[in-house]
Design brief:
Elements: H1 4-25, H2 32-62, H3 67-93, H4 97-102, H5 104-139
Length: 140
């Protein structure tokens, strides 16, 4: 299975998170419009990524002859449900500039928490899950 598209989407998501952090450091209230717009953009990339994972990646991994990889895929898919729900709740709440500007410190705290979980998850996928998929494919 070729997972280059998933890796590229991770790069785009991580880049979006980094730019959001930079913009936040430059001032939440002053950049509320830009922050809300960035959240919408990141959300759309994440939504697309998750749809393709659920419709292509996880089913292929589940049908793998490699039982260890299949179990790993099940665990990753199960974990992602909670992470994605938390992220989209965050994104739905903070996708309006007025909300971001009205509660900048609450936004900062929630962004730090939610985006850290998402960042850590993608790092684990990049260092554990994707290499396992590639190793299994190369073993055939």
């Amino acid at each position: 299975m070729n997972i280059d598209k998933f890796k590229r989407q991770h790069v785009a998501i991580l880049d979006g998170i980094a730019r959001l952090r930079e913009t936040t450091r430059d001032g939440i209230t002053e950049n509320a419009e830009k922050i809300a717009s960035m959240i919408i953009k990141i959300s759309s990339v994440i939504k697309l990524h998750l749809v393709v994972e659920d419709s292509v990646l996880y089913p292929e991994v589940a049908n793998s002859s490699d039982a260890k990889l299949s179990r790993l895929g099940e665990r990753y898919q199960y974990e992602m449900k909670g992470i994605s729900e938390e992220f989209f709740n965050f994104a739905t709440h903070w996708n309006l500039a007025a909300k971001v500007a009205a509660e900048p410190e609450r936004f900062r705290a929630e962004a730090n928490q939610v985006l850290r979980v998402l960042f850590d998850r993608m790092q684990r996928e990049d260092s554990e899950f994707y290499p396992a998929i590639e190793a299994s494919a190369n073993a055939k």
